[in-house]
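Changelog-adjacent note: as of this version, every example in the card shows the full chain rather than a window. The one below runs 308 residues end to end.
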Amino acid sequence: MFYFAAVLFWSVAHAEDYPSRPIRMLATEAGGGTDFVARLIAQGLTESLRHQVIVDNRGNQAAQIAANAPPDGYTLALLGPPMWVWPLLQQAQYDPVRDFAPVALVASSANVLVVHPSLPVNSVRELIAYARARPGSLNYASSLIGSSNHLAAELFKFMAGVDIVRISYKGAAQALTDLIGSAVQLSFPSAAAARPHINSSRLRALAVTGAAPSALLPGLPTMAASGVPGYESVAMFGVLAPARTPAAIIARLNQDIVRYLKRTDIKEKFADGGNEAVGSTPARFATAIASDMANIGRLIKATGMHAD
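Full-length structure tokens:
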């Protein structure tokens, strides 16, 4: 009983003093969808905590660095599916459940299926027919294993029964650049990243990957309504802390993040980036991660997906 009381006192005392110095928020590559969300959340926490929250882009090392950081609230991470997908595909130096304390589910985001205009298809059904007639001849651009554009493409391959070849890139921006340059034929970038290139006719949009159409691309149908019934691929992003971070600090961060996400101007900023602001309890985020891991695990088993 004395030990429990001492731990509780330590946690509350440190939360009252928290923060007393700048906070680091780890994210993956600069310029991607995760980076966009990380910078919005860092801005909000900087305002509420009155200490600078600095985004630190570490690519595919972000999750491992966060897992090994001191559990004191001064290292956070804004991460998405790659964090909990990589350990399903290969040996990782962290456990996505054991080594992290979820803080809040921040946003969800659908992608868009786009093709280079030189590809003679104008719909998902036409793309499926074209790909089936030429197995292995089409390439799709993808960033990190487990990224939203990678998972959306692999789910399309599986559900549509097509053989298209993945071309791997270190980041979503380079993948999109090569698609525009016709080095690859199709990809599943974020709606926000693809929209200017769709509007300029450098890319042709066929469908969105979510359950509902995107406000960023009015009139564009969903994949499910375009020839792949039941298809839905939506990425989620959230803030995590190292495991054993004091519960009082987690609660403080969650409260500030959820309050920030309720603001109309912030919801609009997220929407402009192709994201839906969410905000959740730590428990709900933990449940969402577990559910996503189960669904992706089934996809990995069904497709034989493997790491690079």
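Structural remarks: Residues 1-8 have pLDDT under 50 and may be disordered.
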